[in-house]
Amino acid sequence: MSPPVLDVVDLTTEFALRGGGAARAVDGVSFSLARGEIVGLVGESGSGKSVTGFSLMGLIDPPGRVAGGSVRLNGAELAGMDAEGLRARRGREIAMIFQDPVATLNPLLTVGAQMRMALAAHARTPRRAADDRCAAALARVGIPAARDRLAAYPHEFSGGMRQRVAIAIALLHAPSVVIADEPTTALDVSVQAQILVEMRALAAETGLSLIWISHDLAVVSGFASRILVMYAGRVVEQGPAEAVLRAPRHPYTRGLIDSLPAAAKPGEPLRQIPGGAPSLGALPPGCAFAPRCPRAAGACRAAPPVETREGARAWRCLFPLEAGA
């Protein structure tokens, strides 16, 4: 069996608080990513998904810091690597697609100029050859008349097309790993579906490994091969996508599934998880989900649950749902 493209062990990211102490936005996250694999990272807003992605990229700015753990990309340790070493790998070995292409793309530069700048960051390429690569990347993500669109500005593209441009830029250097931070959230359902199909085809054709961050289980359910569920900075459940969705072991995962509109019968009110996500700077003792959990008991408020593993599945819960429930 070939080694993983990305291997993350006990990744911890903290943000200093004004009154002293620190809030752990990412708390001991561990997972691996095989070549060509698509992993879905899901959870409510504030669960630590995006900060995990930024931590992997080395994009945490003060007062935040990666406080511990290991991030090995193609055998090289990224945690603790200097800024120059990280810059040499961003875009070439690991890339990120951000949620808002309007904020990602420079409105004053043509798409072609921005793509050529991304190419020049890692290799000197003659203008004609650079345009060929840029046009090929745009065509790969479904933009028609790709060479002509190199001269267009971002505002001349629709929202879906702008996101395709952002994806094309991330794929220019054929990185091993791409982190997609909710890139289809602001798009309509039909465009979202098209991009998901195209990204899955790219992963199958090129061996691209993909971490897809989303708050929507419905998006990743038919897209990712494996799912990691985050809550309060921790991965509370992970496993093969079908197994996690058909028979969740953690009550939080069950609550996310029950909250989907498709889970409700016509005319019935939508179900929701009671309460709200806790502040990372003032987490309750014990299990962070205990105040919202229908299965919580006294033991849950005493100490955080350790991880339980069962084959390819893992969860953090003292009173997990029964297998197959």
UniProtKB/TrEMBL annotation:
Main location: membrane
Domain of life: Bacteria
Compartments, as annotated in UniProt: Cell inner membrane
Keyword NADP belongs to the record: no
SUPFAM superfamilies in alphabetical order: P-loop containing nucleoside triphosphate hydrolases
Keyword field contains Nucleotide-binding: yes
GO annotation, biological process: peptide transport; transmembrane transport
UniProt keyword terms in alphabetical order: ATP-binding, Cell membrane, Membrane, Nucleotide-binding, Transport
Recorded topology in the membrane: Peripheral membrane protein
UniProt domain ABC transporter: residue ranges: 6-257
GO molecular function: ATP binding; ATP hydrolysis activity
Family matches, as InterPro entries: AAA+_ATPase, ABC_Ni/Peptide_Import, ABC_transporter-like_ATP-bd, ABC_transporter-like_CS, Oligopep_ABC_C, P-loop_NTPase
Pfam families listed in its UniProt record: ABC_tran, oligo_HPY
GO cellular component, one term: plasma membrane
Family the entry assigns: Belongs to the ABC transporter superfamily.
Record's protein name: Peptide/nickel transport system ATP-binding protein
